[in-house]
Specification:
Blueprint lengths: L5 H10 L25 E5 L3 H13 L4 E6 L3 E3 L4 H5 L9 E3 H8 L2 E4 L2 E5 L4 E4 L2 E4 L2 E4 L3 E4 L8 H10 L7 H12 L3 E8 L9 H16 L2 E8 L8 H12 L3 E4 L4 E5 L4 E4 L3 E3 L2 E3 L3 E4 L1 H5 L20 E2 L2 E6 L12 H19 L10 E10 L2 E13 L4 E4 L4 E7 H19 L3
Parallel strand pairs: 1-2, 1-9, 2-5, 9-20, 11-12, 11-17, 12-13
Antiparallel strand pairs: 3-4, 6-7, 7-8, 10-18, 14-15, 15-16, 19-20, 21-22, 22-23, 22-24
Bound molecules: flavin-adenine dinucleotide.
Flavin-adenine dinucleotide binds next to α2, β2, α3, α10 and β21.
């Protein structure tokens, strides 16, 4: 599987930073330079798994719709499979793709800009490169970290945590920082945390513990991975992860379950838990996540949501009270897995909702699907899998798992191979290349 060839990858890295460039939040006093719309203009903000998938499926639903994808990054980096990159099982180039390729394949416009303002009364967004008027708007800006959730409020401490011990759940820069830490890690505790609430990729902290422990084992490092979790057992695939910890990494992984975090001091490298203090040498410290701050800034959040998620119709995804604005991906309030597979599968439904509403019709809700492979062994490459579907329980008025949901806890090489295939299939679908 190759995202970009080695030469293309090096050339692009030389030309531009891969992650979000800091862009000034200036107020636009001119219109963005875009071709005149030939049909209803749907603007999508955020070119992650959600935004990219909606852009593609909208054009599939109706090629006459004018779709503009506004994304501030210059290159796409896939977070799914990025634990394989951290564990040395996949090069960065295979996770890196061009937005231009996705736009060409899907027949829509990629506009590299940072959205700064929303004017709902004029149906207009502002970007650092001018304003864009929309018929409908989809916001899919992903998540941000909430360090205050474990008591860290001092800006210097947050900066230190973000730069020295990043969680690695939002940007490629964090992943690069973690791999750098691991390359020079000699001994001691490498700490990981699994945050409370519904966080991005439920299986990922446990998978990461296995892959880092495998590296330590291979290099015979005098250290261990300490994974702190407030839950009694892993959030998904409990049986599969616990047997991997015990059978493959006894002595290399210490799983501290039922342990709450009360504070983190990145300067003295100490985590205060409700039981005792843990000293660490390195780590990827993952705080609770929240919807990207733009959702709150534009008054689109649900005031009762602890993770500041959007106040949307939970079946049609439009903001309650405004059918011209949709919020999708990891900013949704429904307790679905915050995963690329949910973002990708729900995008098919959201694209249908938007396209059929333009014709004055409505569509029925269909469940998204979460597919999450976790590589737990590296020699041989064996994975486990969690697959979930959802249903709305009319009696309790709560979301629940559909009975088709199932964990596959017996690690196998077949699931290991399927992990790579999942990536290939999705990269080919969105970017037309692998
Ligand atoms: C280590 C790891 C492993 C994972 N493994 C899996 C897995 O195996 N399977 C799975 O299904 N999922 C997995 N995930 C989860 C998956 O990556 C996320 O759930 C998914 O990326 C969510 O998509 P999104 O589009 O909502 O957000 P994102 O992918 O974060 O995209 C948001 C986009 O919005 C852009 N943006 C934000 N603000 C602005 C603005 N103001 N203007 C313009 N652009 C903006 C950002 O630059 C970004 O590109 C994993 C995640 C991690 C971190």
């Amino acid at each position: 599987m190759t995202g970009l060839s080695r030469r293309e990858f090096s050339a692009l890295l030389g030309a531009t930073a891969i992650s979000a460039l800091p862009m000034p939040a200036i107020s636009a006093n001119h219109e963005a330079e875009l071709p005149d719309p030939k049909g209803a203009r749907i603007v999508i903000v955020g070119g992650g798994w959600s935004g990219l998938s909606i852009a593609k499926y909208l054009k599939t639903e109706n090629p006459k719709i004018d779709v503009v994808l506004v994304e501030r990054r210059t290159l796409f980096f896939s977070l799914p499979l990025s634990n394989l990159f951290i564990g040395g099982l996949m090069p960065q180039s295979q996770l890196t793709y061009r937005f231009e390729d996705a736009a060409k394949l899907g027949g829509y416009i990629y506009f590299n800009a940072n959205m700064t303002e929303l004017d709902r009364s004029r149906r207009r967004i502002e970007t650092n490169k001018g304003w864009i008027d929309y018929d409908s708007l989809v916001l899919a800006p992903g998540v941000e970290y909430d360090y205050s959730s474990f008591g860290v409020k001092n800006p210097d401490a947050i900066t230190e945590l973000k730069s020295k011990f990043p969680a690695g759940f939002v940007s490629v820069d964090e992943q690069l920082s973690i791999t750098k830490q691991l390359a020079s890690f000699k001994k001691g505790v490498f700490v990981l945390t699994a945050p409370p609430g519904i966080y991005r990729c439920a299986a990922s902290p446990y998978e990461r513990a296995c892959l880092i422990a495998a590296l330590f084992k291979k290099r015979n490092i005098k250290g261990k991975v300490v994974l702190i979790d407030s839950r009694e057992e892993p959030a998904v695939n409990g049986e599969g992860f616990l047997s991997a910890f015990e059978e493959l990494y006894g002595g290399w992984i210490e799983y501290m379950n039922s342990t709450g975090i009360e504070g983190v001091d990145p300067f003295s490298k100490t985590i205060k838990t409700d039981f005792d203090d843990i000293k660490f040498e390195g780590g990827a410290i993952y705080p609770r996540t929240r919807a990207a701050r733009m959702i709150e800034r534009f008054d689109l959040n649900d005031p009762t949501s602890p993770q500041k998620e959007a106040r949307i119709d939970q079946f049609d995804y439009n903001f309650v009270g405004d059918e011209r604005i949709y919020v999708t991906g990891d900013c949704r309030p429904m307790p679905f897995s915050k995963s690329a597979s949910v973002a990708n599968s729900e995008a098919k439904h959201v694209a249908k909702v938007i396209a059929t509403r333009l014709q004055g019709r409505e569509v029925k809700w269909v469940t998204p699907e979460s597919v999450c492979y976790s590589m737990v062994n590296t020699q041989p490459r064996e994975a486990i899998l969690s697959r979930s579907f959802y249903r709305f329980d009319e009696n309790s008025k709560q979301w629940a798992f559909d009975p088709r949901s199932k964990p596959y806890n017996n690690r196998s090489e077949r699931l290991g191979a399927e992990t790579y295939l999942w990536g290939k299939t999705h990269f080919r679908e969105i970017f037309g290349r692998i």
